[in-house]
Amino acid sequence: MAAYPPGGTYFDNGKRSFTQVPMNTSKENAISTSEYLEASEALTGLFDMLGQTAFSPIKKDMIQNIKPASFQHPNIKCSNSRGHDFTARALRRNLTQPNEELSVSFRDAYGLTLKQYHSFIIKPIFSAAMSACPYRKDFYGKLGDDEGRVKKDLDEWLRALEDRVKVLNEFLAKPEAKW
Length: 179
Fold this sequence. Notes:
With 179 residues, this protein is an all-alpha fold. A two-stranded antiparallel sheet has the order 1-2. It has one domain: Orthogonal Bundle (Glycolipid transfer protein, GLTP). It is globular and about 45 Å long. Helix 4 (81-96) runs antiparallel to helix 5 (102-113) and helix 5 (102-113) packs antiparallel against helix 6. The chain has helices at 33-43, 45-51, 56-64, 81-96, 102-113, 123-131, 136-143, 147-172; strands spanning 23-24, 30-31.
């Protein structure tokens, strides 16, 4: 059973997409909290496409972080930007490197984003998940039947996610965001 409508892609699944999360440019690119949290929850479904068993710890960690944090930013209360950055970097690299397997892309993204924050207990769990990535062709096939449309929709979704992660990371780097 496909996770997308007939003729569509995974990104047409009816759940909130990062392309549908408004950013208010007149208010320092404020991101709407409720829409962002909905898109964040929808993002976790991609981990089912990567391997429900192997990626369940990553998905669980991300879901636990989809909740309000203790800081305020105009219309934003979510601090799960590391997991989003990890996902965006892995998928962007894989999309732009058409001969690279997902395991390589995800391993690279893990080293650039999450690894430094994980203990010696957590690192092997993530490493095992990276090794359990499906083959590239199988993953992209789960996202839709039309390869060109899948790549187009994934690129649009990634651009929206990357834009929002950038805004959050810039905010989190500010002194007033240190709690």
